Amino acid sequence: MTTATLSLSELTAAATQAATISAAAPDAERAAWLTAVADALDANAAELVDIADSETSLGAPRLTGEVARTSGQLRLFARVITEGSYLEAIIDHADPASTPPKPDLRRILRPIGPVAVFSASNFPFAFSVAGGDTASALAVGCSVIVKAHSGHLRLSERTAEIVADALGAAGAPEGLFALVSGREVGTALVQDPAIKAVGFTGSIPGGRALFDLATSRPDPIPFYGELGSLNPVVITAAALAERSGQLAAGLAGSFTLGAGQFCTKPGLVFIPAGTSFAAEVAEASKDKPAVGMLTSRIAEAYPDGLRSFASVPGVDVVSGSVDQDAAANGAAPVVFSTSAAKVLENPEQLLEECFGPTTMLIEYTDQAELSAVLAKVPGSLTATLHAQSGEDITALVEQLSGLAGRVLFDGWPTGVAVNWAQQHGGPYPATTSLFTSVGATAVRRFQRPVAYQDAPETVLHPALHEANPLRIPRRVDGELVLP
Amino acid sequence: MTTATLSLSELTAAATQAATISAAAPDAERAAWLTAVADALDANAAELVDIADSETSLGAPRLTGEVARTSGQLRLFARVITEGSYLEAIIDHADPASTPPKPDLRRILRPIGPVAVFSASNFPFAFSVAGGDTASALAVGCSVIVKAHSGHLRLSERTAEIVADALGAAGAPEGLFALVSGREVGTALVQDPAIKAVGFTGSIPGGRALFDLATSRPDPIPFYGELGSLNPVVITAAALAERSGQLAAGLAGSFTLGAGQFCTKPGLVFIPAGTSFAAEVAEASKDKPAVGMLTSRIAEAYPDGLRSFASVPGVDVVSGSVDQDAAANGAAPVVFSTSAAKVLENPEQLLEECFGPTTMLIEYTDQAELSAVLAKVPGSLTATLHAQSGEDITALVEQLSGLAGRVLFDGWPTGVAVNWAQQHGGPYPATTSLFTSVGATAVRRFQRPVAYQDAPETVLHPALHEANPLRIPRRVDGELVLP
What we know:
Number of strands of chain A: 17
Largest interface: A-B, 77 and 77 residues
CATH superfamily of the largest domain in chain A: Aldehyde Dehydrogenase, Chain A, domain 1
Oligomer: homodimer
Strand content of chain A: 15-25%
Structural class of chain A: alpha/beta
CATH class of the largest domain in chain A: Alpha Beta
Helix content of chain A: 25-40%
CATH architecture of the largest domain in chain A: 3-Layer(aba) Sandwich
């Protein structure tokens, strides 16, 4: 079910038809579809991991874990729609005595329609064909057309076969899910009148170009893009005094994880001036092996990014080499060191994401300088603080909350739990919206509210029936009521 | 506190400062600020209505009701934030035993920052200086800079004085609320880096121009615009057979209400072919008086719109005259009649909003033709169905749900209740977002999620403290828990 066999207009027509059917299907039925896809991924994990490893160099252990994460994600969304709060059902009964008289009004969230999903290169399962965008859109009753990432095309096609087969066997409508590939098809997809929203994970230039297309349509549609993130880390003097060795080891593990190709890689580390922490990080990083990157284009861009940092006066290489052939030999870790003053002089060049196993240590002299340089950091997915208990960190936490969607304490940002409370998103350019792309609340991106006024119960979604037959949480006359 | 005394950059700097203070203020305190504004509006209602009537011609009874609606709206938002669900607090406790281990994660919605609000002409209170956008943004802890509508500038300034005085007396921070005026200042406001979201109610061309500015910023911001709506009404043969007189009277009352200047005015009425309903509507409309419109520009545009409809072959004037001087004599009602076939031939010209007391009756021959012509109707705020019980209206309701944010049964769309379940918004161009601008859930437009991972309780918002000191509904480990 790709563009090889059907034209884009045939695919979007089928997706529109399928979305109508899925929107009318009971939540329990859609939950069963998601579970069927999860089971099929797990059942075919070994084959999928083999293909993925040959295309991405990410290694079997990591990829095996990612399949489990992806099937777990599908099962989470099945639980989310079964629980029912995601419908945000609200009922206000009529009040003929009020001035003016109030009608009976019942609101619910409904699926937005066919959704286009653009896969990421760096998570060939969790942010790709059967990843979070696809799962959350299917969960609420949308159809999905995935634009495959060229970095793992064979995996995308095989995953799509497994997904389509599982959906079909579970009774989902034809056309609910499809895969396309090619840059031009992707562009056409965002502009297609049948497409009602876009999910995207990728680079700032690529994402912004598609965002601009989505918002300049005659009928603009929401574009949920995750584009780029520097993920600042702040370490206080007290924390460094207490546990610098542990921090150096933790940082080295985090910025090199997956060859530094995580969107939550800690790219900026603010440390007090005048310590030996840089040497400790260098020591902790020096034995990390060079690792093959996702694609040759990414591997070629890595040393370019390194050299751009190194060319700034006042930026030192404290570990590794900027003159490396990452495409031939794998990407080797590089640690930079500079001062907050230098970053304030060259924000455009130094506050730039470099995809790969590198991080920048930035020395600050006092809280005022730290606050000034943090104010220049673009919106990020995460911000991390390492402090000691008893320190007054209120103002710092407030500032970090303003620049990131997730604020971590005494940890590292490269793990992203898939659960109800997760927020994977942040101010632009981290994301282009006020929503998460990971976790239960990701479904809200693909829903639109509709209110029914004085409607006969026969035409209402069961979630809005007076007797609450679905037994879901609802707000009735202003009060939240559990079933 | 207008541009006369402070520059825009001074205003936005003050708004940024005030937003930080308001974000940290307890909900109870912000609720008290909103209540103080509501009380002040009510206390000054007579003076405000006088000014408004002199500027808008809307008449004292309607304007008096609108002040009450506006103060009631402020009080609703005070209740919404006091109840606490609006924070969407979610707590997932740590699970060290899971693979990978899960951290403690606590999510909350936080205010987005300073918001720009563009007033509408047609609701000088409810969608203006102290209207729904302002109230919902202030409620969640944002600061607000209102761009006054030139159609009621004196009222805007007097309202702003009352709002600012009430906020100040209630202890709200300086800079939390400001008023500016002038088209160029409005444009600059949308592009100002300090502004984090925009609320707008107005025309499609004006709104789209500002939407394009907001989305083409280096850092795009959400633009919540309500732009235009045709508000289709469908009447079945059975309903017409049963109660045509009542329907004609109801329609005549609705499309002429407020000189047809409601965003929910029924502009398209689909009726079965071959009835005498057009004559009944003509009869019901003919004695409705000509009424002064909001501004001379609007009054001059009205006959232009009428003549555009009348120029289409196959469109008949069944009541009133397209050659009228609405600026001099007030706007007199005009009823048009045509067929679904003609609309399908000329969708661009006939499916166009005409601000004023006019509506278009459109005859359909069967369900297939009705469905085909409804498919051409642009996204609307409302869609209305008049049917008889026992009719199979499932497919029709499904189609109407797809094109509007509120679907009404056996009523008229020109009343918009302000409550928890309201949805005032719809597919583009009705609105540019997936949110309502009226009712409790309007607050979500001005909030962004932030998750805190392994945070010490001392830095967390009280809503996320383990003991739930605010006693609000929260989701804990996947389960919704009432206090």
